[in-house]
């Protein structure tokens, strides 16, 4: 009986220790320095989420929000864009709506021309890569000058390739 109460007491003490440990806030440390941030980092389903602004600024990057494109832009020696709430529109739908006026496929890829005289090429390699992630391709005007970029992505289940709506808006294609 004495052994039972001893084990019970140890179990109770350990359970309070675990609860106390789990309630401790997550510290965000960048380059060896603790970075206070609000909201604090969270662990959800075994993944740790941290506010990107605090991490980026602690690493010396500038963070901006582009309302029109719904994009967070992080500028440092490297540039990163994070897309939020962005809709993908299929190339087929853009062709049906008259936004794409020419779409020519060849063994090298697909050439696309829009109704506002912008054009871009999607190589076969880019189409293959776009099944795993969004890829970026140049958009040129009728003089061949680069005027911007669009991101292409292919749904791996359907094989349908589309572009991000915010990219089309930024280039005044839609």
Please supply descriptive tags for the structure shown above.
174 residues, 5 helices, 4-stranded antiparallel beta sheet, 14 strands, 2 domains, 3-stranded antiparallel beta sheet
Overall description:
The strands form 5 sheets. The chain has a 4-stranded antiparallel beta sheet. A 3-stranded antiparallel beta sheet has the order 5-6-7. It has 2 domains: 25-83, no CATH class; 88-170, no CATH class. It is built from 5 helices and 14 strands. The protein has helices at 2-22, 52-58, 91-96, 124-129, 165-170; strands spanning 29-30, 33-34, 42-44, 47-49, 62-66, 71-75, 79-83, 88-90, 100-106, 109-114, 119-123, 135-140, 146-154, 161-164. The chain starts with a helix and ends with a helix. Mean pLDDT is 77; it is low at 16-22. The protein is 26% helix and 37% strand. It is an alpha+beta fold and 174 residues long.
Q: Into how many domains do the coordinates divide?
A: 2
Mean pLDDT: 77
- Class by SSE composition: alpha+beta
Order of helices and strands: HEEEEHEEEEHEEEHEEEH
- What share of the residues does DSSP label as strand, in percent? 35-45%
Alpha carbon gap, first and last residue:
79 Å
The main sheet comes to: 4 strands, antiparallel
Total beta strand runs: 14
Give me the secondary-structure topology:
Blueprint: H1 2-22, E1 29-30, E2 33-34, E3 42-44, E4 47-49, H2 52-58, E5 62-66, E6 71-75, E7 79-83, E8 88-90, H3 91-96, E9 100-106, E10 109-114, E11 119-123, H4 124-129, E12 135-140, E13 146-154, E14 161-164, H5 165-170
Antiparallel strand pairs: 1-2, 3-4, 5-6, 6-7, 8-14, 9-10, 10-11, 12-13, 13-14
